[in-house]
Amino acid sequence: MQYAHRYIQYAVTALAGFNGSLPLQHYLKQFFAADKKYGSKDRRFISHLCYCYFRTGHALQQLPAEERIKVSLYLCSEQLEGWNDLFTQAWQQAHTPQLTQRIQFVVQQGIPFEAAAVFPWLQQCSSDIDTTAFAHSHLLQPHVFLRVRPGMQKRVLQKLQQQQVVFTQPQPDCIALPPASKADQFLQLNSEAVVQDLSSQRVGDVLLQADNKRIRTVWDCCAASGGKSILVKDLLSDIQLTVSDVRASIIHNLKQRFAEAGIRSYQSFVADLTDKEALKRGPVPGKGFDLIVCDAPCSGSGTWGRTPEQLAFFTTAEIDRYATLQRKIVTTAVNALAPGGFLLYITCSVFAAENEQQTAYIQNQLQLKPVAATLLKGYHEKADTMYAALFTKA
Ligand SMILES: C[S@@+](CC[C@H](N)C(=O)[O-])C[C@H]1O[C@@H](n2cnc3c(N)ncnc32)[C@H](O)[C@@H]1O
């Protein structure tokens, strides 16, 4: 690559002005917009270097920025491709598609690199996690996953083949595309397929452990733009759906997405579920809901492969803040659960305080009976890691 060294310098400049107050993606957009000299290729390469820099988390902090970007790029690249010129012959020859071997080589060069430095909160993780594999997974950019909507399998596969799209199918109805793919360029999103992480799709397997025949009324109480609602509708089909969120703007997005997804009959409202009185203003059926989906606001620590800047800016105090918020929300929400109904509690966090400890709270304090609870480990499949727990009300 002609300008590899220059790109490193530009990345150093971009990173020097970043303080984490915006997502990196938005910050870089503003950075490039402020100086018209960057063409689209420049923007792509400089962004890539900035993302690599954050993927190594708190490791390599002893290196000067330029060196840290180079070593991070080396570790994060399964192929060096055009970046060869940045490295000596010895480094180029030692490069391998195997991440663990690249790490070994870097350590042999006298550069310390430990999993606990990439992700410094390994002690707080759910005990079920392979912490080294999880920490190292941040060095690889995750796939873009699609969930094919019911009845659309043939059509979607035909379109992908026609457009010569490279993809794999980790499970039926799931398409894995290379990182950063723009699926809207070849598919009708939301009607033919939804962009939904593999682990998020697997939440459906946990839901299906409920006695589906008993489920008619469903409330998605932290609906955002409706990803889980569309999943539930596709799995259970004959349901009366109610959605709510604390943000009116996101409910607006949800309505647009539901229209594209062909979901026309549902109720929606805006509610802050930290307010115990919130339900008095919501459309709760007389006997309560048969299923409440609580995809709670969380640290998002299972998804930082997509937003690696979080590794640099997240503070431990946030874990408690989210855990408290989750308890308040779920405590209010279960007041609207019908006897015999189900609660599906979900996070995209790896922290025990947001996962197993919340399950214990829901069981012991809210008196719901656990049906299933699982950590959906995406770190071996370039996917997010999530937690899903299903409960029933006696
Ligand atoms: C993890 S997101 C939900 C994602 C969504 N279920 C999906 O699949 O796309 C959590 C949502 O909880 C909402 N939320 C945060 N605090 C809340 C509160 N106090 N009451 C209700 N919803 C809240 C956020 O606005 C956010 O949209």
UniProtKB/TrEMBL annotation:
Pfam families, A to Z: Methyltr_RsmB-F
Active site, renumbered: 348 (nucleophile)
Stored CDD domains: AdoMet_MTases (cd02440)
The keyword S-adenosyl-L-methionine is assigned to this record: yes
Amino acids binding S-adenosyl-L-methionine: 245, 272, 295
Domain SAM-dependent MTase RsmB/NOP-type: 121-394
Family: Belongs to the class I-like SAM-binding methyltransferase superfamily. RsmB/NOP family.
Name by which UniProt lists this protein: SAM-dependent methyltransferase
Native source species: Filimonas zeae
Domain of life: Bacteria
Molecular function as annotated in GO: RNA binding; RNA methyltransferase activity
UniProt keyword RNA-binding present: yes
Keywords: Methyltransferase, RNA-binding, S-adenosyl-L-methionine, Transferase
